[in-house]
Design a protein that fits this description.
The chain is α/β, with parallel strands linked by helices and 296 residues long. It folds into 2 domains: 3-210, P-loop containing nucleotide triphosphate hydrolases (Rossmann fold, 3-Layer(aba) Sandwich); 220-279, Alpha-Beta Plaits (2-Layer Sandwich). It has 10 helices and 14 strands. It has helices spanning 43-50, 70-75, 91-99, 108-114, 130-141, 160-175, 187-193, 211-218, 258-268, 282-290, and strands at residues 3-14, 17-28, 32-36, 58-63, 66-67, 76-79, 148-152, 179-183, 196-201, 204-209, 222-226, 243-247, 250-255, 276-278. Helix 5 (130-141) packs parallel to helix 6.
């Protein structure tokens, strides 16, 4: 699949700090691509270079195999993490104002429908909730009918229901064929929405692939935790098809043979009350790769 946007050997230095250190990757057209990393990883600087907001120290950004230029700016939409909306005007007036900036804006009715703005169309911007504000900002980003949309942590600070509603909007935008480049600190969000993710730390890309492929490559099996396995130290663990360790008084078993593991636990007389099963996720992967949390 052809890359709609590509970065090659991207570097950015600020005096003695290297924020981006030789980053190269491409974003296939039509997918949702996630750029993940903790604060200070370099992802915001990378995104801002890709958006054409700041100049790299070295390297290049290509949009459809050409250096970014005025044509690029007409083909992309951006939803910044922090955006000031005009005050004392309504949602409808805001949409009309921003539509006037583009030669071929998306019809107002489409914007309202896609971003579910009908109920707040006549509301003053100052009276919008967090979720309503983000829906309006997404509408502003897709006014030019972009081929590529940048979404910089669009659901930060939203309540769970507002986040889920916004996920539906992102999926709808993508269903139209628009490529989405997303940064987020929420791993459930990345795992649900993203076809590919790049995990970044200390200015470099550590891994890049689909979430299932990354997890399959780095983890085997699931972790079964037995919090009430009192006296388990006296049990014979040798017959269990799992790696066994103790953690704060509990027993943790890593296994690829879940049925056989539970059958053997029952045969050995383990207390299974309160057991949990944990399947490794993207946050587990990041901690494994860097030793730090994505929310750090």
């Amino acid at each position: 699949m052809n890359a709609i946007i590509e970065v090659r050997e991207l570097r950015k230095r600020y005096k003695d700090v290297t924020a981006v250190d030789g980053v190269s990757f491409g974003v296939p057209e039509g997918i949702c691509f996630g750029l993940l990393g903790p604060n200070g990883a370099g992802k915001t600087t990378t995104i801002e270079i890709m958006e054409g907001l700041i100049e790299p120290t070295a390297g290049e950004v290509l949009f459809r195999n050409r250096p970014i230029d005025r044509r690029f700016k007409e083909k992309v939409g951006i939803q910044f993490q922090h955006t000031a909306l005009p005050e004392f005007i309504t949602v409808q007036e805001t949409l009309k104002l921003f539509s006037a900036f583009y030669p071929h804006p998306r019809p107002l009715k489409e914007l309202v429908d896609i971003c579910a703005l009908e109920e707040i169309i006549d509301r003053d911007n100052r009276k919008l909730s967090g979720g309503q504000r983000q829906r309006l900002l997404l509408a502003l980003a897709i006014i030019p009918q972009p081929e590529l949309v940048f979404l910089d942590e669009p659901t930060t600070g939203l309540d769970p229901q507002a986040r889920r509603n916004f996920w539906s909007l992102i999926e709808r935008v993508r269903s139209e064929g628009t490529t989405v480049l997303l940064t987020t600190h929420y791993m459930d969000e990345a795992q649900l929405l993203c076809d590919q993710v790049a995990i970044m730390d200390q200015g470099r890309i550590l891994e890049i692939d689909s979430p299932p492929s990354l997890l399959e490559r780095h983890f085997e099996g699931v972790v079964v935790r037995l919090p009430n396995a009192g006296g388990a130290a006296g049990h014979d663990h040798s017959g269990l098809p799992a790696d066994v360790k103790r953690n704060n008084g509990a027993i943790e078993l890593t296994t690829t043979q879940l049925d056989d593991t539970f059958r053997r636990l029952l045969e050995l007389g383990f207390n299974l009350d309160g057991f949990t099963i944990h399947k490794p996720n993207l946050e587990d992967l990041f901690i494994k790769l860097t030793g730090s949390s994505l929310r750090a």
